[in-house]
Amino acid sequence: MRHLVKLAEDKLNFGVRPLHSLEEHLDGAAEWLLRAQRATPDDGVAHSYDVKAQRWLASYPETTGYIIPTLYDYARYFDKPGCASAAARMAHWECDVQLEDGGVRAGTMDAEIVVPTIFNTGQVLFGWARAYHETGDERFKGSLRRAADWLVAAQDDDGAWRRFPSPFTSTKVSAYNTRSAFGLVRAFEALDDERYLAAAVANVDWVIRTAHSNRWIPGNCLIERANDAALTHTIAYSIRGILEVGQAAKREGFIEQALVMARAVAATQRPDGALPGQLSRDWQGIKPWTCVTGNSQMAINWQRLARITGETQLRECAVRANRFNMSIQDLVAKNQAIRGALKGSHPINGGYMTWRYPNWAAKFFMDALMLEYLGDRVANIG
Q1: Overall domain count for the chain
Q2: From what superkingdom does this record's organism come (predicted)?
């Protein structure tokens, strides 16, 4: 019944709340992530809270991996040492559950299928690289190298990753794996191994070769779609990977591709700051609900591009997206499982993470707000 109350709030616009300070919104999301870690029997972070089933889902190695740098950033810039301790425990847990071949498993810890997958491995690189930087612990260095080596070995000669797709998605050769290429950039920065940067560049080169004349990239969604539409969530993943690999490798063509894509997404932004949940291959919004994670991810992309290219109007798009997401974050909910959390979709029955509060929505929300709040003081945000 609670899920229907949440839906009614969203539909009637009661779910939109007065804005608090950026610090209060950040603190709400950080506290929720710590509760999501405590909700599991291990040191991973619960995949999500399902408001319909009224339960936490099992720990999710993929997203726990890239939550680690977010908590380290929050600990450093906002004097929250407990978040750094939590991040270190997450990183050790990732070492514990790393597969023998160096890869990271698909799905949550209770998934019946246990196989390594490209995307998930790429995301945990962020956590190990940052934990190694923060602590100097050789255990993190070893896991980082094994995972990065596995990704390089799995890559085809043309730069694509065709092996080891996720068994839980239907798109088997995914453009959004540029986000894994970005993970290899972090491995390169931590370990100074040029092979990792070369592999990242090769993947982005391949992805850009597949782009349409309007810079739309096919195969850029979790689900294979006949009309090639994609979630703003996965479009944002691909943009960030293209941008950051371009920045690391000094490839202006990559940065230009990311900029054109980011402008096209910005053109679909609603007056309230939200984005359509899905876009068509002609860059048109095709869903009335919004993907909350995609809003935050694009806010990150727009801020990074504004800093790199000087296109300051993109920063305004980012602020509007941040304000929308802030307006739908409940900081006073009696139910601690949703207090400070971010939904998968708004309304909550939308087509992405329906009825759920996924941990990565809180992670990217925090990254987007920290970029806005700290500006040039924050570096290497994940």
Answers
A1: 1
A2: Bacteria
